[in-house]
Amino acid sequence: MSMKYKQALQHKSDFLTYLDVERNVSINTYKSYQYDLDQFFDFWHSFEKNKKITLPLPQALQKFFMDLYGKRFQKSSIARKIACFKSFEKYLHTCNIAIDLNLTTPKIEKKLPTYLTVDEINYLLDTLSDQELGSTRPIRDKTILETLYATGIRCSELCNIALTDINFDQQTIMITGKGNKQRIVIFGHKAKERLLEYIQTERAQDNKKKNNHLFLSTHGTTIQERSVQKILKLFSQKLPSKKQITPHKIRHSFATHLLNAGMNLRALQELLGHSSLATTEKYTHIATKDLKELYVKYNPLKITKTD
After folding, report:
1. Which residue in the list 81, 183, 251, 257 is annotated as catalytic?
2. 187 close to 147: Cβ distance less than 8 angstroms
3. Which of 29, 70, 208, 237 has the most CB atoms in a 10 Å sphere around its CB?
4. Domains with residue ranges and CATH for the chain
5. One of 283, 285, 297, 302 is an active-site residue; which one?
């Protein structure tokens, strides 16, 4: 089928609604796909206007990706855009539109994830003083770092934590992850102490708008992912190695340290919320009690009080 610009534009709008309502994709996935689609349709419209020709969808996509390769876009970025249009193609098939976009994903050299050492984590959380950190909200910022490392959650998940999601008696947090899937993560005694200190001090000071979210900006609004990234950048500047710190690198550190200590891979995947991994799908769901016992056993930081 030969699909022209205006017809494809309508299907684009329907596809985004489908992603949001039926697929219930994460907000980050939705925004990424929306950006990729907007970028392509802007290119398609400009190309036809400048060249004074009409291109069907498959040929327009070929021109679009040739342009990206010519501009030396990273293969990882191109691969993400191709994934978007492969999903769009599948959606069109569900609408009984037989179309072949003829997309091939470029081969990407897989890089091993980088992570912080246990000593580096301990330095940032315990050795580095609040004054040395140089932040206007040092208690909040250290609590953010501690929570990310203690739980292995994603940055978006951290920002969405509400006070009502936290069970301090059980030392658990109900996390709403990708696709609004919920899971329980566990935090230790050190993280509990930091959370309570933050809630009773800086958060109480900033909570002018009666916000129920855990982490707040200085204006009392829910903290945003970009703000968390800036906070971690400040930590990286204080690290002797000057190693770059990102939310995902903290997540890698959490996973690597637990695996190196001998934690069961299946239990770790439950904690990380990797429901899409084949190894997770093959096994039954692990009870929270069992997860907590494994977490307490293998976490390199002291997460329970010792006598």
Report:
1. 251
2. yes
3. 29
4. 5-94 (1.10.150.130), 118-298 (1.10.443.10)
5. 283
